[in-house]
Design a protein that fits this description.
With 247 residues, the protein is an alpha/beta fold. It has a single domain, classed as BirA Bifunctional Protein, domain 2, CATH 3.30.930. It contains four helices and 14 strands. Strands 1, 2, 6, 7, 8, 9, 10, 11 and 14 form a nine-stranded mixed β-sheet that branches. Strands 4-3-5 form a three-stranded mixed β-sheet, with no helix packed on it. Strands 12-13 form a two-stranded antiparallel ribbon. The longest helix has 18 residues. The two termini are 23 Å apart.
């Protein structure tokens, strides 16, 4: 089903622990129906995160890491978050979107593929590997957590940040993986707000949903624009032309 109301918020640069506490609060409120679905868009201060897997080898230890390490309740191995990376945290009641974690993961991949396409970058999936890739270079990572079918955590799209911190770990547990950014692949400057604007426009299109049939075309899924409320900095509004070349 399409969301009765979706709040999309641009939060700017946020400390990871503060963002985690905010997610915890919003998940609890969404669980009891106090708030509608949420999409938080932000950047983090430099931090490494580790999923709930017992295999911690992708961190390669921690003594050599100059940024904090936070262990969290998402799936997946170690990754890095920092300035220049767009992080998205959807707080959704997945019972309204098929109640299927694999379908939800594929929908996030589709979102990131379409966002990249907005900047003329052809991204794709890779079989057996969650995330989004440009050729053999990883441009976005996905890791989710779920409580009573309310989602948290989400995706991280490398837009224009420094990739060097990734070399200190084994990103997502994939040995030898090469990371890339949207700006590098596009060949022109792209800001995190540019990418956030594209995500805000495309997010609802990619959710698993029961179609709202457009008149005269039963195959088209329509998402009424009035369903989406964007909060936060006004720079996120009307961002349809930011950096558009044609993920």
């Amino acid at each position: 089903m399409t969301p009765a109301n979706l709040s999309i918020q641009w939060l700017g640069r946020v400390d990871f622990q503060q963002a985690l506490a905010l997610q915890d609060r919003l998940v609890a409120e969404r669980r009891i129906g106090r708030i509608p679905d949420q999409l938080l868009l932000l950047e983090h201060d430099p931090v490494y995160t580790m999923g709930r897997t017992p295999d911690q080898t992708s961190l390669r230890g921690t003594a050599h890491l100059i940024h904090p390490v936070v262990h969290i309740n998402r799936g997946g191995q170690a990754t890095y978050h920092g300035p220049g990376q767009l992080v998205g945290y959807p707080i959704l009641d997945l019972r309204d979107y098929g109640q299927d974690l694999h379908l939800y993961l594929r929908s996030l991949e589709e979102l990131l593929i379409r966002v990249c396409a907005q900047f003329g970058v052809t991204a794709r999936r890779r079989e057996t590997l969650t995330g989004t890739w440009v050729a053999d270079r990883k441009i976005a990572s996905i890791g989710i957590g779920v409580r009573s079918w309310i989602s948290m955590h989400g995706f991280a799209l490398n837009v224009c940040g420094d990739l060097a911190p990734f070399t200190e770990i084994t990103p997502c547990g994939i040995a030898g993986v090469a990371m890339t950014t949207l700006a590098k692949e596009f060949g022109q400057p792209v800001s995190v707000k540019d990418a956030a604007g594209a995500v805000s426009r495309l997010f609802c299109e990619c959710l698993p949903a029961s179609p709202v049939t457009s008149p005269g075309n039963s195959s088209v899924t329509a998402y009424p624009p009035a369903l989406i409320s964007i909060q936060g900095e006004t720079a996120l509004r009307g961002s349809g032309t930011h950096g558009a070349a044609a993920p």
